[in-house]
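Exercise (ungraded).
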Amino acid sequence: MSEKPVVLEVSHLKKYFKAGANAVLKAVDDVTFNIHEGETLGLVGESGCGKTTCGRTCIALYDKTDGMVKYKGQDVHTLKGKELKAFRKDAQMIFQDPYASLNPRMTVADIIAEGIDIHGLAANHKERTEKVYHYLDLVGLNKEHANRFVHEFSGGQRQRIGIARALAVEPKFIMCDEPISALDVSIQAQIVNLLIRLQKDMGLTYLFVAHDLSMVKHISDRIAVMYLGVVAELTTSAELYDHPLHPYTQALLSAIPIPDPEIERKRSANRIKLEGDVPSPINPPAGCRFKGRCKYATELCDKQVPELKEVSPGHFVACHLY
Amino acid sequence: MENILEVKDLRVSYHTYAGEVQSVRGVSFNVERGEALAIVGESGCGKSVTVRAVMGLIKGPTGEVKPGSSILYNGEEILNYNKKQWSAYRGAEAAIIFQDALTALNPTMTVGKQIAENLIIHKNLNKQEALAEATEMLRVVGIPEPEKRVKQYPHEFSGGMRQRVMIAIAFACDPKLLIADEPTTALDVTIQAQILDVISDLQKQHGTSVILITHDLGVVANIAKHIVVMYSGMIIEKGLCEEIFYQPKHPYTWSLLNAVPRLDLENKQDLVAIEGTPPDLIAPPKGCPFSTRCKYCMNICNERMPEFTSFGGEHKAACWLHHPMAANSIKESGLEFPFELGGVENE
Ligand SMILES: Nc1ncnc2c1ncn2[C@@H]1O[C@H](COP(=O)(O)OP(=O)(O)OP(=O)(O)O)[C@@H](O)[C@H]1O
Ligand SMILES: Nc1ncnc2c1ncn2[C@@H]1O[C@H](COP(=O)(O)OP(=O)(O)OP(=O)(O)O)[C@@H](O)[C@H]1O
Ligand code: SF4
Ligand SMILES: [Mg+2]
Ligand SMILES: [Mg+2]
């Protein structure tokens, strides 16, 4: 994978929000990773840890507070005019909520063709319609669906419409923000299979955000585990599963129930239990942000922020144990 | 073993402008005393409506428990209860934890008062005693600094802590039957593991009988003794936990188990997707409810509802594939099956 060129380069990215008069909410606080062409990077972590904020800042939907995001070598936050428009076409997003993210007053055809119109990708009306049919077909819907409205579709079908809309502008990079979380298990598999097939056929690059580690492991080449605005661990998905190093990653993996009673019975005895909740990002703990829930925490963890270190080739971890 | 709850041919409908929504269409199952039963199935298949009926929470004029339905609690028909009997039953005998703790809790009342309320009604404690007991309950469900927390309001709690408060309320009066309707669906996995531990510890200590609802089979692997799989308002398979996981007999159960990626599986392999969506409950199909999505569907499946085939013990599945008459047509089809076909002779 690493021979492929880097598409997205994120270094020391920070994104803070104002929270009241004097408080600052550090949603993303020093995040670094690369994504290579044709690769899927999974971004996991508990609710509120900053996954969505990070993804949106990467595709310049949010301004950054500090750090740098480069798309094919260009700083995405300084793009203007033509270059910005080209980036907006190259980098698309699929949303978590298939109910709220599609305009209820537009037909499916108009939703899908919106980007085609903006970027002038169809020469005439006939070509526009052909393109709409093509993308409907690609995501497993059909022509008959084109003139209907969103409320007539199920959650899984709406997510397919959202994917067709993103694909219609011929993007290179898609940030998928929990595209399956709102869907039933039987429908999740449909969408994940579709995303994997599209990636293979079209050479797409994905940033795949989710809190369900088993689905992320399945779809990703590499995974970044986030905790309270920082990257705790980053490596290939096989390595993350076989040799999790960060105590948080270990707890996260151990908490995922496996649908097998015998295995679960054995696992539950040795389960790594995490006490307490994620602290507030408004006044994140000094030193290591995980220390309050970590059973290995030492004095050093209180005082010093652990840097993200490469402990074996391609395996990065931010923990004083290593 | 003796049953604390026996649900027989339960039918529940909602009368809406669009027509009669047949949410639950003839559901039968038993809950053994002191054991946990899991109800599994996808969104809209009737899990919540089923347990709402068990709690007496199906309200007219739109909601209707159909005549012929029966729910026996300790052998007594609860569907005939009057208002007074229902309120004695709720809280003291049976309690429910709802999926969404934030909307189920009263935002204007401290959590201490909300736990104490039931204790005052059902256990005849005075206010002070009840508050002391409430503090103790918060400690039991693992909330740090319970003395301070008991005086706080729900919005001051995180999602996982609110769900613990719901558990504290449900367990306060030591119910014999606890119903947990997707208690962890809205929570992160690490918190989910904590909550499931609390429920399972309390169950063991108090000998409580539990109905646990979920759409994630992984969640129940280590908790449930029996599993009921629902689809479009009906039970399509039921049996012991091991039977459902290791010998699923219904194509839907089998697909459900294989639709989730296992951590030990190869990456980017095709998952077993179930194409299509569940049927509309206003006009459910006359044959097998799964027929529109089933890749083994035969002619008979579209025409007639399959009956339960028995696989020994309590293990049953409603699918035509297991009917002796289907054997020939299956052989001709040349299809391969991920499970063994055919049941055992009726006991
Ligand atoms: N526009 C905003 N203004 C202020 N605060 C925000 C904004 N967006 C997010 N936040 C805060 O930033 C933090 C990170 O939020 P974010 O949505 O990125 O988390 P997430 O990891 O995507 O969580 P989830 O899994 O729940 O989607 C949270 O504390 C959130 O409340
Ligand atoms: N108050 C109501 N009025 C009309 N229809 C209802 C009502 N409550 C439930 N239904 C319908 O009954 C069916 C079963 O709903 P139920 O809430 O039991 O599903 P569920 O299995 O609990 O799903 P979920 O996993 O989404 O909670 C659904 O089709 C639903 O739309
Ligand atoms: S009865 Fe027919 S349609 Fe229904 S699950 Fe069995 S084979 Fe499939
Ligand atoms: Mg998010
Ligand atoms: Mg429900």
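Further reading is listed at the end of the chapter. For now, observe: Chain A has one domain: 6-317. The pocket of iron/sulfur cluster (ligand 3) is lined by residues B 251, 288, 290-291, 294, 296-298, 301, 306, 319-321 (CB under 6 Å).
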